[in-house]
Write a structure and sequence with these properties.
Chain B: It comes from Acrocarpospora macrocephala. The complex is a heterodimer of chains A (about 375) and B (about 180). Chain A is α/β, with parallel strands linked by helices. Chain A is about 25% helix and about 20% strand. Chain B has two domains: about 120 residues, K homology (KH) domain (GMP Synthetase, Chain A, domain 3); about 50 residues, no CATH class. Chain B has five helices and six strands, in the order H-E-E-E-E-H-E-H-E-H-H. Classes of the chains: A alpha/beta (about 375), B alpha+beta (about 180). Chains A and B meet through strand 14 and helix 7 of A and helix 4 and helix 5 of B.
């Protein structure tokens, strides 16, 4: 196992200070290893996640070579040649487990933003005190965007949140963590070959969730109540002004409808499986409140906004992968983790084999199946 | 399951989507219109040809649109005002979207009606107040749909039709427009 830095490196260096896992503690489980602390319904801080993964590495005696950065993987006659910062390795098979979030993805027009505005990605962001005083424009309303918008607003700054398509979820549904429902009802176990539109499922933004001790919901209504101003998807920069889409109401409708449909699925499952008695009665949440008039223009030179935080997603980085298996959109071509090159495999990508593939507990089933394929490949070749 | 028919050939659209995924150059279309000044603010615009799938195409027949201003604008009212054509585009695009999405989702439509209202402060175009924009301040579309579907499914149809609408996108997002003299 090659690790460019230390065990749990990205959790140590590529996360902001206040971040906690979106999954409750009881869901943090790896083969033979689970959370055993006093707060199963809580959410791990980054320190706790690092400890959890470190402990797993120790107990399993995983053969991790730390500070070993892979700079190239090339195909040879009988396998792969892996070049690292600590020398070369020849092997018959390679499992890529470098994740889907290696680089923040930002739109092309960042270059057109006036130089007077500071631009940050979640990789640069640690906490509000690292930002200049004054207004902040947070772009993107997935988990990252809503969490940073809330934290920056609480720091006393005026915050505008630019909202495109998003996934709305309550933190708790019928008294249980919404992710309990995802797990128990089997939604998370839905397989990649059963999903209607796999490309879309793999591109789905992370849900508007935050892990807090209060287990609170952080949807757009909650942000609006805090005083965060909502504007449409950022479409372009023209003459130093940001132009936002006028289609805000529809992205609200889409997210509200999808949430309702998901909650219907949960209710049906509870009814069909006789689980209604152990949870609270079904509930429905107020639609996302549409602002009286959302502005579609913001003069970036006026000083109203001093900082832009790009919470516009992440992309994988396969710059080191010298095997032609990456598509024109920069995604790995694979079928359930079996990459389009003999002996090459992947794990830990969105909906790799199941909807839960990118969650900590989601790796176990995927890994078993991918490794089965790998051992069969090694036995036959 | 009974076959539903809204008159949309969804299979052809789904097939086209698959083919064009691998052939982005064939997906490039150019729509064209030619306008001619008549008199006053009265003009005639003709549409017949367009380019797409790598070649020139022609509509079955030429369409002619007359635009003018109403009498309250001290004009002859030979036709609707140009900004009303945007309402035509939006309404017809969303309606087509509703029918297509309904077909794809197996929802039989009985009637789809909508009203579109664009609020317009004409002090902008008159130059009476530089803080007022020239175009619509907002547009409101109201659908009345009779279909074999729940209220929620109908709302989802309308939401999805906006998500895939060319005119909704063109109106809600900025577009680079270059106007030149030949």
């Amino acid at each position: 196992m090659l690790e460019r830095g230390e065990v749990a490196n990205s959790w140590r260096r590529e996360r902001w200070d206040s971040l906690r896992l979106l999954t409750p503690n009881w869901q943090s489980r790896l083969p033979g290893h689970r959370y055993e602390g006093p707060d199963p319904d809580g959410y791990m801080t980054m320190g706790e996640v690092i400890e959890f993964i470190e402990r797993f590495a120790t107990v399993t005696r995983a053969p991790v070579r730390t500070s070993t950065n892979v700079t190239s993987v090339r195909r040879t006659d009988d396998g792969y040649r892996v070049t690292t910062s600590c020398g070369e390795i020849r092997c018959r098979a390679v499992v890529i487990a470098s994740g889907a979030c290696n680089r923040p993805a930002v739109p092309q027009f960042t270059a057109a933003v006036p130089a007077s505005v500071v631009q940050l990605t979640p990789f640069d962001y640690r906490g509000p005190s690292w930002l200049p005083d004054g207004g902040v424009l947070v772009v993107g309303a997935s988990a990252t965007g809503v969490q940073l918008a809330a934290e920056l607003k609480r720091s006393g700054r005026p915050v505008i949140l630019s909202v495109g398509e998003h996934v709305r979820l309550p933190r708790l549904y019928r008294g249980r963590d919404v992710l309990w429902w995802m797990d128990a009802s089997g939604v998370w176990d839905q397989r990649h070959d059963e999903v209607d539109d796999l490309t879309r499922a793999r591109r789905l933004p992370s849900p508007q969730l935050v892990g807090t001790p209060e287990r609170r919901t952080l949807d757009l209504n909650a942000l609006a109540t805090m005083g965060v101003e909502l504007v449409g998807r950022w479409a372009a920069v023209r003459d130093g002004s940001a132009l936002f889409s006028g289609g805000l109401r529809n992205v609200f409708s889409l997210a509200d409808l999808k949430m309702r449909r998901l909650l219907d699925t949960f209710d049906e499952w509870a009814r069909a499986h006789g689980r209604d008695a152990e949870v609270d009665p079904p509930e429905r949440f107020a639609p996302t409140q549409v602002p009286e008039s959302a502005r579609w223009q913001l003069d970036l030179r006026s000083g109203e906004i001093r900082t832009i935080v790009w919470a516009t997603g992440y992309r994988p980085d396969y710059g080191w992968l010298d095997v032609p298996v990456v598509d024109t959109k920069g995604q790995l071509r694979h079928e359930g983790g079996v990459v389009d090159s003999p002996g090459l495999y992947a794990l830990g990508l969105p909906v790799l084999r199941r909807r839960k593939s990118t969650f900590i507990h989601g790796i176990e089933d995927d890994a078993r199946e991918v490794i089965d394929h790998l051992t069969r490949y090694l036995a036959l070749s | 399951m009974t076959t539903i028919d809204n008159g949309v050939n969804v299979q052809a659209l789904l097939d086209a989507r698959e083919v064009l995924k691998g052939a982005p150059e064939a997906a490039q279309f150019t729509w064209r219109a030619s306008a001619k000044w008549e008199n006053g603010v009265h003009s005639t615009t003709r549409i017949q040809n367009f380019f797409g799938l790598g070649q020139e195409h022609s509509h079955k027949s030429e369409a002619v649109f007359t635009a003018d201003h109403p009498e309250v604008f001290a004009a002859e009212d030979n036709g609707i005002t140009p900004i009303e054509y945007l309402l035509v585009g939006l309404a017809s695009c969303l309606t087509a979207g509703v029918a297509s999405v309904a077909q794809n989702r197996g929802i039989q439509l009985r009637s789809v009606e909508s009203t579109v209202e664009g609020n317009h402060d004409i002090r902008g175009i008159l130059g009476a107040d530089s803080d007022v924009r020239n175009g619509f301040n907002d547009i409101k579309v109201t659908f009345t749909i009779d279909a074999d579907a729940s209220k929620e499914d109908i709302e989802a149809l309308v939401a999805q039709s906006q998500k895939r609408s060319a005119v909704f996108d063109a109106l809600t997002n900025p577009t680079n427009v270059s106007v030149e003299v030949a």
